[in-house]
Amino acid sequence: MNASAEQIRQHLIDTQAGIELLMLEVPLQPVLTPSGSHPVEALPRIVIRQMLSLVVSRTLIKRAEDRANELGCRLAQLPYEMLLECGMSRSKATTIGAIEAYYQQYPQQMDNWQNLPTSALLNEVTTIKGVGPWSASILAMFHFAHHDLFPIQDSSLRKAIGLLKDRDILVIPERAAPYRSYLACYLWEFLDQARL
C-alpha cells in the first residue's frame, strides 16, 4: 500500500457521497502501520478493551501488566485467578488463557499470522475460544495494518452509519475498497469528535 493519508481520504470522499464536509472537519487519519508487537501480546489487550471504556480498559491492562512484570511473564501467562484479581471478567480471563494456550500449542501458526491475507487471518484468530470477529478485525487493522477491512459487527460503526443515514448520507463500505479500514477509522472519529 503506497497511498498517502491524503489520497486515502480523497478516495473515501469520492466513494461515499455526501461525506466530504465531515471528512474535512476531523483530523487526517494516519496510514496504518504494523504495531511490531507479537500477537500473543496484542490480542489479550484487544480482548480486554472490548465493550469497555478507554479509561476502564487502560486501568485493567495496567493492573495486569504490572502483575505480569512482577512475575516476569507476559499478560497472557497470568493465571486465571490473578486475571480476575486484576478486574477481568470471567469470560475475558478465560479468553486470555485460551490465547496463551493457542500460542503454546501453535507458536509457528501465530508467528505466521502476519503473512496471512485478511480473510484467512480472521478465520484463524476466531478459532481461539472466546475471540470473535470484532477482536480479530481490530487485530487485523491495528496490529497487522490490514487496510481493507470494515468490522460491521462494531456497534459504534453501525451507530455512525445510522446517524449518517438520518442526514441522508448513505455509507456503503464496499465502495471504500481497498481502504475500508480507513472508512471505519473516520466513522469512529466522527463519533469521538461528536460530529454526528
TrEMBL record:
GO molecular function terms attached to this record: alkylated DNA binding; DNA-3-methyladenine glycosylase activity; DNA-7-methylguanine glycosylase activity
Alphabetical list of SUPFAM superfamilies matching this protein: DNA-glycosylase
InterPro entries: Alkylbase_DNA_Glycosylase/TA, DNA_glycosylase
GO biological process, one term: base-excision repair, AP site formation
Keywords associated with the record: DNA damage, DNA repair
Presence of keyword Cell division: no
A single GO cellular-component term on record: protein-DNA complex
The protein's name: 3-methyladenine DNA glycosylase
